[in-house]
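S1.2 Input.
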Amino acid sequence: MRRLVALALMSAVALAGCSGAPGGPQAARFPQQAPPTPGATSPAPSDGASACNRDTLIGTIAARSVEAKASPSLGAPTIASFARINAQGAPQVFDLVKEMVGTHGEVWYRALLPMRPNGTMGFIQARVLRLSQTPYRIVVSRAHLTLTLWSGCQVVRRYRIGLGTLDTPTPVGTFYLTSLLKPPVPNSVYGAYAYGLSAYSNAITTWKWGGMIGLHGTNDLSSIGKRMSHGCIRMRNGDIRSLVRMLPLGTPIEID
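S1.3 Output.
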């Protein structure tokens, strides 16, 4: 069953690789994650065999808001606060890297945070998170202009993509899907769908939502296989539709 996130139509989008055309995407339906295996924890995603047989553990905020701490302690400095619903209208999720026990016996998770600088980690109490997991992960090769979808240790499919220019490059690192938006018309610059990522552009900082990187369709097929975007990952519309049918928010994406 899919969940529908209600959100009013936005007047513009903030994905760094998209134009500021009027009539931006609205929050869309997305697949639900599977419940976690008891005791499941997940390392940072990797394309290597050592991690491919482990599902990614995902935490969805179950409270009104949460604070990510610098260490697993309520007295530790707060890195950032996150509301239950993010700025794009989707449930706020985190990829959870490691389970830890705090100073008073409480359970915490070391989490990858959707913020600048890219790769920021913080600690979030387990009691304010609803846990789920996914076997899926995405690996983007900047050298080969390909996106590979994995399920566990099996390649599901490999796609041809477009990426950022030399001046506005697609950032490198481990990130995850944070939102799913559906444009009001299918032939927009965002194509059929647009995922927001936890990644941010290293070249663009002044756009709405801070230069968030996106993974989206396109109305310009000539950009596939080229480096023409402001940092976003572009796919054919049929390809992004196939991902939307499978991938929950929190699905990890490695860009190398």
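S1.4 Remarks. The radius of gyration is 17 Å.
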